[in-house]
Amino acid sequence: MIRLGLINDTQNLLTPTAIHNHPSHTSHDLDQPPIIPNLLNRTIFSGENETMCSALTSFDAGPPIRKIIQTHVQPVVIIFTLFTNCLTTVVLTRSAMRNPTNLILLAIAVADLLTVLLPLPIYMAFSTSNLFSRQLTISKGYLVSYLTHILPTTFHTIAIWLTVLLALQRFIYVQYPMKASVSMLCKEKPVCWAITFTCTVAASLQLPIVAVTRFHYGLPYCSVNGRRVQHFPVIFINNASFRLFEPILFKCTPMPAVLFFGLLLFRITVVNLLPSVSLIILTGQLIVALHRFEKNRRKLLQRSANKIVLLKSSLLGEPPTATQNVIPAAEKKIERASRSAEKDSTSRMMLVILIIFLIVEIPTTACLCCYAFATLFTLSFKWLHEIMEICNFLVVLSYPANFFVYFAMSRPFRSTFKGSFPRLWSILVVMKNRCHTSTNTENMAQGV
């Protein structure tokens, strides 16, 4: 992020769009006398320090890790994510899977799906053609901005807030099981309204950026101070010589740096910092509650099992009716404990999902905070942009991980998946059997 003004002795004049509507006006045409005075007189934002601008360049001009991730690695991960999230969406829409928890999981899966689907055409175009690498236009700038930043950020914000809602709902189920049936967050209709409200607020949060963001062409220039310059046009103004470069496209936000920092910090706090802190607290509470309930369930199972053994052993020495009335009660306790174990299995699955979310979101939040302060103090850290690219890639990588968590830890999900995709299920079974066969063969060979 740069300001208009001194940038390593290079400055930029933001020029009107009309000047660039003629393709014949290249960098070597800029030294023609009729164009330069007109250009300098019609510049916009020239010399203003209240306009935050960043050059919209191709991936070739960005950090090397950006080109590697977004043009080679990330498209493959995104395509795989589209496949897994489509499977997750189909399974969660089945009537057998319809409950308040799965409604939130379905909304998260759809939000993640749209987060990776929207920028995919841009990434594919960057890696397969020069459509967005050369001759950047204002319309291309808006297209790249909406498909790679504004809309994906909106859907990622929805996924973050819904994850907090999921953690809060699971906390109610675990900590207050008797009140869960009457809680608003544990009913389908209120959950649907909460999802709709979340989507609306997340979209509204992007409106300030959409309203102020503009794209303009910029004419880079610098003072040559009597140095010999070849292959670049040079103009003389007030006995000073300036070298002109080829015009480039800028993404500009006409607002003071302090206001821009405030909006950015507000967004980081609301979208990243507060949800991360809330999830850390709720995750810790879930871990403690699950550990306590697991301990109590083991005691209950052990106590009920011992009671059944004692009652059956004394069956011949006591009246049959009294003993037979007590045994079913003990067996019912064991059955209730088993059902509680299934609920705890769902809670453990939610816990794994929350931990994966925190692993990828905490570094992202830290990087965004550093980026906000770097913007305020006009600092430039190349390593920060590289780390942010890695963090964004880890976020995308976590999306298909949720599918494998559902598949491994949820019996209803597996059974519904089997009924929805029988052929795919048979392929997975064959692959699993082959893996077990090869593992057993290797173990036998090592034993011999």
TrEMBL record:
**What PANTHER family has UniProt attached to this entry?**
SEX PEPTIDE RECEPTOR
Q: Tell me which domain of life the UniProt entry assigns to the organism this sequence originates from.
A: Eukaryota
Transmembrane annotation, as ranges: 73-92, 104-126, 146-168, 274-293, 349-381, 387-408
Entry GO CC: membrane
Domain G-protein coupled receptors family 1 profile per the UniProt entry, residue ranges: 84-406
Q: Does the keyword Ligase apply?
A: no
Annotated InterPro entries: 7TM_GPCR_serpentine_rcpt_Srw, GPCR1-related_rcpt, GPCR_Rhodpsn, GPCR_Rhodpsn_7TM
Q: What is its main location?
A: membrane
Q: What Pfam families does UniProt report for this protein, alphabetically? A: 7TM_GPCR_Srw
Per its record, how is this protein called by name? Answer: 7 transmembrane receptor
Write out the entry's keywords from A to Z.
Answer: Membrane, Receptor, Transmembrane, Transmembrane helix
Q: Does the keyword section mention Nucleotidyltransferase?
A: no
Quote the subcellular location field of this record.
Answer: Membrane
| Molecular function terms, GO-annotated | G protein-coupled peptide receptor activity
